[in-house]
Amino acid sequence: MPRISKVALGSTAALSLALTSCMGAGANIPSASTPITQAEARTGAEAHPQLLAEFGGAMSGPHAQYVEQVGRNIAVRSGLGNAQSDFTVTLLNSSVNNAFAIPGGYIYTTRQLVTLMNNEAELAGVLGHEVGHVAARHSQRRQAEAQQNTLFGVAGAILSGIFLGDSGIGQQLSRGFLQGSQLLTLRFSRSQELQADELGIQYLTRAGYDPHAMATVLQSLAAQNALDASLQGRGDARVPEWASTHPDPASRVQAAMRRAAGTTGVTNRDTFLTRIDGLVYGDDPKQGIIEGRQFIHPELRLSFTAPQGFYMVNGTRAVSINGQSGQGQLSTAPYDGNLSNYVHRVFRALGGNRQTLAPAALQQTTVNGLPAAYGTARVNSGNGQVDVVVFAYEFSNGQAYHFATLSQAGRSGVFTPMFNSMRRISRAEANRVVPRRIDVVTVRSGDTVSSLANRMAYDTAREQRFRVLNGLGSRDTLRAGQKVKIVVRGS
């Protein structure tokens, strides 16, 4: 969620033409790419500022410089540009595991995905995979298939197929609920993902890296997905299909291993770990943090608790709340001092141009000392009736925030405890919120997985988190002199 946000529920549909996120073996693997065209360069230059705003902004400093160096080195192997300066490589301040590229030589990875990696070859592999999508012009092909669908339309159609049927209101509501989750992407086919894997492996080999890194980073991503599912109480090991940006990495590991067989190269493990030491891990307090079921934003001075059985994803513009019995988000919109007007405007934005959406009645109340207003609209959809609730709060800084939730008709009460949990936090409580960071340590004689895992800045699943973070299997042990990552608290 933004540091100070006054954005409305709007559309970033302009991004749909270019965004090629994923992190799919196709025919016609290009041995040399067509260079970046002027049209592609213009497209990338126009989309770049919007992407920075949507994904937490660009990081600077030594961590970002290192990622830029590795990214440019691998990107030039694609043939899209003749010089490293032809590419713009950005480390994004996002806590979501994500990487993508857009036409024009723009390549991105989130800091969270970087912290999951364990050597420089893996970083180069991820960025090379994304460059492969651009080299194969996958976004243009998917755009041609989608034609009239925008970025939100594609993602919204997936959600509406599960929850709302194919109604126009379903797709429009989905746009609102998915905005800001940082999980919105133009999905690629399996063959395109495999093709990008293969291209990334080619680039790794050309650059002298160990091509097995493509498989090991996919393996770590699959393990992280499984751990997240376990921690969030989900039954499967994948992000829900309607929100997945990295579809089924586990199924691609063996294919990547087969392609890399018989080839070796450098990994630069110790160099990589030294260069990412101190990188922020998880949520940045400037964007709010998630601790279990609690969300707390020290700069906006607010906090709430998600319902039991739900999990949250913290995005740049909104916090998404997801569960089997409903979805929702916390966001904000322009506020003129009238909560009733605010709620009605949010409903109209959710309804969009295709259908007028308004609450049956509007209620005024107070929640933990905060003036509040809420209303419910019942909507007919292909899968039956659903309830849309907007619950808004006025804060003393002249800003309003609201939940927008979606559930089956008559079941919106699952969100009532969350609505009632919204509160303003004290300055002292806000000051106690500090970020987690990566701390690279050298294993000493007598250190074990268990002893180092106990230093992780978490109350639960310390050993599981430590193993996934360091790419360790359930039976792997440590040796003295080995560098490993732990997560600690630090300003």
UniProtKB/TrEMBL annotation:
* Classification via InterPro entries: LysM (IPR018392), LysM_dom_sf (IPR036779), Mito/Outer_Membr_Metalloprot (IPR051156), Peptidase_M48 (IPR001915)
Classification via CDD domains: LysM, M48C_Oma1-like
What EC designation does it have? Answer: 3.4.24.-
What are the names of the required cofactors? Zn(2+)
Q: Where is the signal peptide?
A: 1-27
Task: Tell me which UniProt keywords the record has, alphabetically.
Answer: Hydrolase, Metal-binding, Metalloprotease, Protease, Signal, Zinc
Instruction: Name any one Pfam family assigned in the record.
Output: LysM
**Protein name (database record):** M48 family metalloprotease
Q: Which domain of life is it from?
A: Bacteria
The segment(s) forming the LysM domain are 439-486
Tell me one GO molecular function of this protein: metallopeptidase activity
